[in-house]
Specification:
49% helix; alpha/beta; elongated; 2 domains; six-stranded mixed sheet
Length: 296
């Protein structure tokens, strides 16, 4: 099993849940760094992974999706400067912990995780995706796991419809039909989550939906009689949205098989970071325990 961590989720979680009076000697907030370090430390002690990677988003404005649709994620406010600074510190910590830390200007963390999932399958190795982002469930097969660590817990493939309403392989189609307000993806006008779910339950995929526009009236949803015409009129919007909602699994990576195996934490680098951030003894001792586990 390989563990693939969607780092941004846990950096944001720490930033908005940890007190903002956790600061370094210069008064700069380090709450996101502290929370992220504790999360990674707890994870490493609990799981003791043999293969692990931590994926970060490097830039929202240079993503290949922005080239396709310039309004992609344009509704999001830029991250505050103190959070951007802490993201860099979190990446530095992940590297000091001996973990594969990856980011790319054109590919989002989701795409890096998708690429590692695909490469792992070539090695016969299933994946546990550590995230709270439903988009990533589209990567699951029956041997993989979606793990909302410190949240809802683990979800196997067969549990995804109970939580998200459709099967993993339908997630990208579902978002293409219903749209995704979080990422500013419009989808098909007038098609909400309930209708999108009913269409996919009936036909199976976005492609099959468009192959059966004359039969849309058979689906038991409100407005079914005019829904086929509406879908037909907005096929370009659905196709565009589908190019945005699908996770790319071909991001360039340098020798992931080598770096997926965690190295022994660099305690010198970790303590130097903790000195700068004015972080006390509890997290330092945790790092030492993890280093001892690696040596054992």
């Amino acid at each position: 099993m390989q563990y693939l961590i969607d780092a941004s989720v846990y950096v944001f979680r720490a930033y908005y849940s940890m007190p903002d009076d956790i600061v370094d000697k210069e008064g700069n907030p380090v709450n996101a760094l502290y929370g992220f370090c504790r999360f990674i430390g707890d994870f490493m002690e609990q799981v003791r992974p043999v293969h692990i990677a931590v994926a970060f988003d490097e830039s929202l404005t240079s993503s290949f999706r922005t080239e396709i649709y310039p309004q992609y994620k344009a509704n999001r406010e830029p991250a505050p400067e103190d959070l951007r600074r802490q993201f860099a510190l979190c990446r530095r910590f992940a590297r000091a912990m001996g973990l594969m830390e990856c980011a790319d200007p054109r590919y989002e963390a989701d795409d890096l995780i998708g690429t590692l999932v695909t490469l792992g399958r070539l090695q016969g190795r299933p994946s546990t995706i550590v995230s709270r982002d439903k988009d990533l469930t589209q990567l699951l097969t029956k041997v993989d796991v979606f793990w909302d660590f410190a949240g809802k817990g683990k979800l196997a493939y067969e549990k995804i419809p109970e939580v998200f309403g459709v099967w993993p392989e339908q997630i990208a189609d579902f978002l293409a039909l219903a749209g995704d307000a979080v990422d500013n993806i419009p989808g098909v006008p007038g098609v909400g989550k309930k209708t999108a779910g009913a269409l996919l339950q009936h036909f199976g995929s976005l492609e099959k939906v468009y192959e059966n526009l004359d039969n849309i009236h058979l689906v038991k949803v409100r407005g079914a009689k005019t829904l086929g015409a509406k879908l037909g009129a907005h096929k370009d919007a659905a196709d565009l949205a589908r190019r945005l909602t699908g996770i790319a699994c071909d991001a360039p990576m340098d020798n992931p098989e080598k770096y997926l195996r965690p190295a022994r934490p660099d305690l010198g680098a970790i303590n130097a970071l903790y000195d700068e951030a004015d972080i006390g003894t509890a997290l330092r001792r945790q790092a030492e325990r993890i280093a001892d586990l690696h040596q054992a």
